[in-house]
Amino acid sequence: MRTYLVTGGAGFIGSNYIHYMFEKYGDDIRIINVDALTYAGNLENLKDVEDRDNYTFVKADICDKEAIRKIFSENDIDRVVHFAAESHVDRSIKNPEVFVKTNVLGTLVMLNCAKESWEEGESFKEGKKFLHVSTDEVYGSLEKEGEYFYETTPYDPHSPYSASKASSDMIVKSYMDTYKFPANITNCSNNYGPYQFPEKLIPLMINNALSGKKLPIYGDGKNVRDWLYVRDHAKAIDMVMEEGKLFETYNIGGHNEKQNIEIVNTIIEVLQEELDDNDPRKKLVSKDLITYVTDRKGHDRRYAIAPDKIKAAVGWEPDTMFKEGIRMTIKWYFEHEDWMKNVTSGDYQKYYQEMYKNR
User: Fold this and answer.
1) What is the DSSP letter of 9?
2) Domain named NAD(P)-binding: which ranges (predicted)?
3) Which of 16, 87, 172, 340 could form a disulfide with 230 if both were Cys (CB 3.0 to 4.6 A apart)?
4) Tens digit of pLDDT for each residue in 296-320?
5) Pick from 125, 132, 90: which is nearest to 110 by CA?
């Protein structure tokens, strides 16, 4: 049975990846989920799998070398999928130190512990692989229409968050080049879908609109992002892990370039279509809620990924176009109102902090 060590598996993308992997492989794999359970980690995301015999959760910080080393020493880890990261740009502007510690030093700890465990003489044990999950934000901003991010695009990060991810990418690349460490790097576009923390654009707008709260949009609302449904991202990671060529970087894009204002308008339109006429929230959902606010510092204008390489290498391309994906996402939030209430109230943290306070 192949054993996967997933870091940050209680977060948005990590938990979706774990669900995807169990749906695809069932009892043929084992997953060890390591998460520090910061504000973005929520074990409610994994309620459906927590009782599986082939699933284990370990509360640990990726910066804790001894804790990570212990996991490797007690388990025969075949694959590492490294999601764990601080990822919210606004938070990075207010507190860059946390981002450098987790994203840079945490990645270094993960690499060193995997390297120690997998080394076999001058090479590495057969079949071992480390996949580092990164972001398109490391490339900076596209200013011209028709331009795209490729794997060869020079790095040009503009926020403490993107700079910390660029640094972690460079460390992984250095291990591949220096030690021939068996790894890949993936750089993805903006993800959306179930279990996303509501400080992010799409769940924030859904939640605010249903509550009749203002819908804050930075600047003129015309910043462009390439949107990727999270399940498509999980599928891409699995395909790179199993079929990708070692030491390569693969960009994962959604072919869904949208201005922020387009996203918000689409959310409002879909909510109005999906809400029953007798639902009092339908009267609350309105474009009058849109409020333009002072632009974010260092706000990149446009991101767009060309996923040509990953398609050619492993045959991956996104299955979900935005209009379909946003409908599925809104439906999920409708069906999981208690999840949203627990997250926005902070109750999810209280429960798990109490559970793990002595572990």
Assistant:
1) T
2) 5-329
3) 16
4) 888 888 999 999 999 999 999 999 9
5) 132
Helix (H, G, I), strand (E, B), or coil: what is residue 290? strand
> Which residues contact residue 269 at a Cβ distance below 8 angstroms, ignoring those fewer than 6 apart?
none
In tens, the pLDDT along 41-64 reads: 999 999 999 999 999 999 999 999
Phi, psi of 315 (to 5 degrees): 80, 15
User: What would the two tokens of residue 348 be?
Assistant: 């999810």
Q: Which of 161, 175, 348, 352 is catalytic?
A: 161
In eight-state DSSP terms, residue 302 is B
Burial class from Cβ neighbours inside 10 Å (0-12, 13-18, 19+) for residue 315 reads exposed
Q: Which of 136, 226, 238, 257 is catalytic?
A: 136
Q: Which of 35, 44, 61, 137 is catalytic?
A: 137
CA-CA-CA-CA torsion sign (202, 207, 210, 212)? negative
pTM of the model: 0.93
**Amino acid, single-letter form, for residue 352:** Y
Question: Rounded CA gap, 282 and 308, in Å?
Answer: 41
Rounded Cα distance, 253 and 262, in Å: 18
The helix or strand, by DSSP H or E, that contains position 344, with its residue range, turns out to be helix 337-345
Q: Which domains does the chain have, with CATH numbers?
A: 2-350 (3.40.50.720)
Q: What share of the chain is helix, strand, coil (3-state, %, to 5)?
A: 50, 20, 35
Catalytic residue list contains 136: yes
Residue 161 designated active-site: yes
Q: Which helix (H) or strand (E) holds 116?
A: helix 106-118
**Strand blocks (E) in 46-182:** 55-59, 79-82, 119-120, 123-124, 129-135
